[in-house]
Design brief:
heterotrimer, A alpha/beta (about 270), B mainly alpha (about 290), C alpha/beta (about 325), A: about 270 residues, alpha/beta, 6-stranded mixed β-sheet, 4-stranded antiparallel β-sheet, about 35% helix, globular, C: alpha/beta, 8-stranded mixed β-sheet, 12 strands, about 20% strand
C-alpha cells in the first residue's frame, strides 16, 4: 500500500454539457457525460480506461489534461488541484503531464517542421532557448526511434506510425511523469500498432512514465496497464487488474464487452 | 474516429514538393498569372516611361485610330490612349492593393478574434459584418463619395470598408475549422495561450484560403474602381482611369468605338486574369494534394 | 460457372510520384453463396480491388485482366452498363456509416433509391419495400422512422440502413469494405451477425474486407491475405489460420496484442514499414521486410505453391521456412 499521495487522483468527477435550447422557456437539455468518476494513478504504474463511444472516456482525458473544466469534482496531480491553479501555475505544471492524441494525421500541424512540433511543449514553458530546444527535440526523436535528420522534415513526409512516434516524442520532451494517451494506436495498422505499443512499453520501463491509457481495445489496455477501469455511461462500473478482470468479470457490461471481442481460433 | 476534415484550400499543400512544378502546368494559374503580371508590369513601366505624356493634349490629332505614332490611337482631347492605359493601371492597382489591404488587415484580425474568443465577441463581430453587408455595396460607395467628396482616396475607403466583413467571415469560418483540429488541442495541452495559437497555428493554416480570397477581392476592387470612376466619383481628372475612359467614350461610340474597346479590354483582362489566378491557386492548394500517403 | 471470376487483375494508379501498380496480378473466384474475406493493411490494394469490381476507380486508373460476373466481362464495360450492375447485381457497404448516407435525404428515400432506379418502382412502392428492408435489418419501430434523417440514428443503426440500401435489389454479390471498423465492439458483433444471416438467407456471395483477423475468422469461409498489391496467401479460412504459411501472415498474427497475455511481453513486429506503391520492389513485395529474405526474393515474383487441397501461398522458401520454424518449435 503506497503511503505517498498518488501521482494522479481523480475524485468524483462530474461533467454535464448544456445543449442548445429546445424550448423557449424551461431549462435546456443536458448531456451527462460523466457522473462521478474516481480513480488514482500511482507513480510508475499505468491505468487503462476502457469504454465505448459515449461512455465518457474522452471526457475523462480532457478533464485530466485540464483542457476542459469539470462541473464538479477534482483532478489532483501530486496533490495539487489542477483546476484551481492560476493560469501561470497551470502552465508550469503542464511540464509533468502531456498528451498523445488518437489521429496521427490531425495531431501534427502540417505547416510546421518536426523540430518545431516536438519542441512545442518546451516553447510554451518559455524556459529554454532555441538551441537547447532543438537538442532536446533530437533527444526525444532518438528515444522514439527516429533520426536527427527527421527534424527538418514536415509531417506529410511520414507514415501514420511514424507520425504517432513524433506525437509521442512531443509528449516526452518535457520529461513528464504522466502521459495521457487517448486511443494512441486505434488509427494504426496492426503491425504498426505493435511497433508503437512496444515503444510505449520501452519508454515506460526506461523513464518510469505513468500512462493513463484511454482505449476501446481491451487487448491494448491489457498490454500496457497495471489497472483497468471499465467506463459505461459516465461511470466506472468495474475496475481491477487486467488479467484478473478479463478472466473473472463481474459486471454485466464488462462481460458483454469481453464476449463481443471476436477471437481467432488459437493454434 | 476523428472529425472529418473540412475540404478548404490547405496551406499544407504549399509544403509538398513540386508545388511550383504543378503550378506551371496548371492552365488557369499560368494564364491568370501572366495577365496579372502584365497588369503589374504596365503600372510599373508607367513610372519610368510612357510613349507620350498622358496629360498632353493634341487637339489636332484627336480621335484617331491606331497608328505608328499613337499605337492605340488618341482620345477626344488628343491624348495617347496607350499612355492613358498604362498610367490608368496605376489607379487600378493602387485601389486594389489598399482596399484589399484594409479588408485583409482589419477583417482578418476581427475574424481571428471571433474564432479565438467565441461567445459574445463572435456574435458581435458577425452581426456587425451582417449589418455592413446588408447595404448594397456600390450604392453605399456612391453615397459615401457623394457625402465625403469624390476622389481616389474616398473611393479606396469606400471599397475597403466592404472588404472588412468579407474577410472577417471567411477568416472566422476557416479559423473555426482549424481550432477544432487536434494539433490545436495539442498546443493547448502544452499550455499555449490563444494569441500564440492564433499566430502560430491558425493563421499559417488559413493562409491558403486568404490568398485565394485576396485575388478574388482584388478583381472586384478593380471593377468597383472602374464603376465609380465611370460615374465620376472615383479618380478625378486629369488622373487617368480606365473607368473614366469608358465614360468619356460613351458619347463617342459611333465616331471612334475603339475608345471604349481598349479600356474595356484592359478592365476585362485584368479581372479575368485575377479570377483565373484565384481559381488556379484554389486547385493547387487542394488539401487532397497535401497528403503524401 | 462461378458467380465471380477475377483473372490476373492489374490496376495502375497515378500517384504523386508518378504511375504505380496498385494491384499486381490477382486472381480469385467466388461461387454463389460463398463468403470470401480479404485481409491486409493500408496500401495493400484490397479496397482498390473491390472498387474495380464496382467500376468505381478514378478515371486515371488503368485496369488490365479480366473480371467476369456470371460470364459477363466487367473490365472495359461502358459506364451506362456498369450503372445497371451497381446496386442491382452488386451491392456495397462502406466503412464510415456517417458519411455513406446523404445527410439531407430521408432514409426512406435513400433505401428506396436503388429500387426506383433499377426496378422501376414508384415512390409509394419503393417506400413500402424500404419499410420491409428496414424491418429486416432490425431498425426498431421502422414504420414511424421512415421520414427520419441519418443524423437521428446511432452509428450502428446507420450501418444497418447502409446494409438495407445495399441489399435493396437483391444483388448476387455483396461487398462489405470494413463494415464494422468504425463501430463500437458490442455493435460490431450484431452487425456482422446481421450480414451473415442476410447473406445466407438471400443466397448471396459475400466479399468482406477487414484488417481484423477475429472478424475474418468468424465470418468467412475462404480468405485472401494481400500485401503490396499481391495475394500472398489464400485458401479456406481454417487452413490459413491453422497453417499461416506465408511469413507476412505469420507476422500479422504475431503482432496482435491478446487479452490474457502476460504483462511485459514484447509484441513480435514486422521490421520496417510498408513501402509506398512506387517503391515496391520488382520481386516479392515482402522482400526486405521478411526475416527469411534471400537475393532471389528481390528479383523474381514467387509463383503460387499450392498446399492441398486449395491453400495457395506465394513464397519461394516455404520448405526452408517450415524447417526453420520446426527447429525453433523444438528448441526451448
Amino acid at each position: 500500500m503506497n503511503s505517498s499521495p498518488p501521482l494522479l487522483q481523480v475524485s468524483d468527477l462530474v461533467r454535464h454539457y448544456a445543449l442548445p435550447r429546445e424550448k423557449l422557456f424551461g431549462p435546456p437539455p443536458t448531456v451527462k457525460a460523466l457522473n462521478g468518476v474516481s480513480f488514482a494513478v500511482q507513480a510508475g504504474k499505468s491505468v487503462g480506461i476502457v469504454g465505448e463511444s459515449g461512455s465518457g472516456k474522452s471526457t475523462i482525458a480532457r478533464l485530466v489534461m485540464a483542457l476542459d473544466t469539470p462541473t464538479s469534482g477534482s483532478v489532483a496531480l501530486e496533490g495539487r488541484n489542477l483546476h484551481t491553479l492560476s493560469k501561470a501555475d497551470l502552465r508550469t505544471a503542464r511540464r509533468d503531464f502531456q498528451m498523445v492524441f488518437q489521429d496521427p494525421y490531425g495531431s501534427l500541424d502540417p505547416r510546421q517542421t518536426v523540430a518545431r512540433i516536438v519542441a512545442e511543449p518546451l516553447e510554451a514553458l518559455a524556459e529554454t532557448r532555441r538551441a537547447e530546444q532543438r537538442e532536446r527535440a533530437a533527444e526525444a526523436l532518438a528515444a522514439v526511434g527516429l533520426r536527427t535528420t527527421d527534424l527538418d522534415k514536415y509531417p506529410h513526409e511520414f507514415s501514420g506510425g511514424q507520425r504517432q512516434r513524433i506525437a509521442i516524442a512531443r509528449a516526452l520532451i518535457t520529461r513528464p511523469k504522466l502521459i495521457v494517451a487517448d486511443e494512441p494506436v486505434s488509427a494504426l495498422d496492426v503491425s504498426v500498432q505493435a511497433q508503437v505499443l512496444n515503444l510505449m512499453q520501452d519508454l515506460q520501463q526506461q523513464f518510469g512514465i505513468s500512462y493513463l491509457l484511454i482505449s476501446h481495445d481491451l487487448a491494448v489496455v491489457n498490454h500496457l496497464c497495471d489497472d483497468v477501469c471499465v467506463v459505461f455511461k459516465g461511470q466506472i462500473v468495474e475496475r481491477g487488474e487486467p488479467a484478473e478482470l478479463f478472466a473473472n468479470a463481474q459486471h454485466p457490461y464488462t462481460r458483454t464487452l469481453l464476449s463481443a471481442v471476436l477471437h481467432t481460433p488459437s493454434r | 474516429m476523428s472529425a472529418i476534415p473540412v475540404p478548404m484550400p490547405s496551406a499544407a499543400a504549399l509544403k509538398v514538393p513540386g508545388f511550383w512544378r504543378r503550378a506551371v502546368h496548371h492552365r488557369s494559374f499560368v494564364i491568370g498569372g501572366v495577365l496579372a503580371a502584365l497588369l503589374l508590369l504596365a503600372a510599373l513601366v508607367s513610372f519610368i516611361w510612357t510613349p507620350w505624356s498622358p496629360y498632353a493634349m493634341d487637339m489636332a490629332n484627336k480621335m484617331q485610330g491606331p497608328s505608328a505614332t499613337h499605337w492605340l490611337g488618341t482620345d477626344a482631347f488628343g491624348r495617347d490612349v496607350a499612355s492613358l492605359l498604362l498610367v490608368g493601371a496605376r489607379a487600378s492597382i493602387l485601389v486594389g492593393v489598399i482596399a484589399v489591404g484594409i479588408g485583409l488587415v482589419v477583417g482578418t484580425a476581427l475574424g481571428l478574434l471571433a474564432a479565438a474568443r467565441r461567445g459574445w465577441v463572435e456574435e458581435a463581430v458577425m452581426r456587425l459584418s451582417d449589418f455592413t453587408l446588408a447595404f448594397p455595396a456600390i450604392l453605399s460607395a456612391i453615397m459615401m463619395t457623394a457625402v465625403f467628396g469624390a476622389g481616389i482616396v474616398n473611393a479606396i475607403v469606400a471599397i475597403g470598408i466592404y472588404n472588412i466583413p468579407t474577410f472577417a467571415r471567411i477568416t472566422r469560418a476557416s479559423a473555426n475549422a482549424i481550432w477544432s483540429r487536434e494539433y490545436v488541442a495539442a498546443a493547448r495541452a502544452c499550455g499555449k495561450g490563444s494569441f500564440a495559437i492564433t499566430m502560430q497555428h491558425v493563421l499559417p493554416n488559413i493562409s491558403a484560403v486568404l490568398i485565394v480570397q485576396i485575388t478574388i477581392r482584388f478583381a472586384i476592387a478593380i471593377l468597383a474602381e472602374a464603376a465609380l470612376s465611370y460615374l465620376g466619383l472615383g479618380t478625378q481628372p486629369p488622373q487617368p482611369s480606365w473607368g473614366r475612359m469608358l465614360s468619356e467614350a460613351q458619347t463617342l461610340m459611333f465616331q471612334q468605338p475603339l475608345l471604349a474597346v481598349f479600356p474595356g479590354m484592359a478592365i476585362a483582362f485584368a479581372v479575368l486574369g485575377l479570377n483565373l489566378l484565384g481559381d488556379g491557386l484554389r486547385d493547387l492548394l487542394d488539401p487532397r494534394l497535401a497528403r503524401a500517403r | 460457372m462461378p458467380l465471380l471470376e477475377v483473372n490476373d487483375l492489374h490496376i495502375g494508379l497515378q500517384t504523386q510520384r508518378g504511375p504505380a501498380e496498385a494491384v499486381r496480378g490477382i486472381s480469385f473466384s467466388l461461387e454463389r453463396g460463398e463468403t470470401l474475406g480479404i485481409v491486409g493493411e493500408s496500401g495493400c490494394g484490397k479496397s482498390i480491388t473491390v472498387m474495380s469490381l464496382m467500376g468505381l476507380l478514378p478515371s486515371t486508373a488503368k485496369v488490365t485482366g479480366s473480371i467476369k460476373l456470371d460470364g459477363q466481362e466487367l473490365v472495359g464495360l461502358p459506364e451506362k452498363q456498369m450503372c445497371q450492375i451497381r446496386g442491382n447485381r452488386i451491392g456495397m457497404i462502406f466503412q464510415e456509416p456517417m458519411t455513406a448516407l446523404n445527410p439531407v435525404h430521408t432514409i426512406a428515400r435513400q433505401v428506396g433509391e436503388p429500387l426506383m432506379l433499377h426496378r422501376g418502382l414508384t415512390k409509394a412502392q419503393a417506400r413500402k419495400e424500404a419499410l420491409d428492408l428496414l424491418d429486416r435489418v432490425g431498425i426498431p419501430d421502422a414504420a414511424s422512422r421512415l421520414d427520419a434523417y441519418p443524423h437521428q440514428f446511432s452509428g450502428g443503426q446507420r450501418q444497418r440502413i447502409g446494409i438495407a440500401m445495399a441489399l435493396a435489389c437483391g444483388p448476387d454479390l455483396l461487398i462489405a469494405d470494413e463494415p464494422t471498423t468504425a463501430l463500437d465492439v458490442t455493435i460490431q458483433k450484431q452487425v456482422l451477425d446481421l450480414i451473415q444471416s442476410l447473406v445466407k438467407e438471400m443466397g448471396m456471395a459475400l466479399i468482406l474486407i477487414s484488417h481484423d483477423l477475429g472478424v475474418i475468422s468468424q465470418t468467412v469461409s475462404k480468405m485472401l491475405v494481400m500485401y503490396g498489391g499481391s495475394v500472398v496467401e489464400s485458401g479456406p479460412t481454417e487452413d490459413v489460420f491453422a497453417r499461416r504459411a506465408h511469413p507476412y501472415t505469420q507476422g500479422l498474427f504475431a503482432a496482435r496484442p491478446a487479452i490474457g497475455a502476460p504483462r511485459g511481453l514484447r509484441l513480435a513486429t514486422i521490421r520496417g514499414s510498408v513501402p509506398e506503391l512506387v517503391d515496391l520492389p520488382p520481386g516479392c513485395p515482402f522482400a526486405g521486410r521478411c526475416a527469411y529474405t534471400v537475393d532471389a526474393c528481390h528479383a523474381t515474383r514467387p509463383s503460387a505453391t499450392v498446399l492441398p487441397p486449395d491453400h495457395a501461398v506465394r513464397c519461394m522458401r516455404l520448405e526452408e521456412i517450415a524447417a526453420i520454424a520446426g527447429k525453433e518449435a523444438v528448441a526451448p
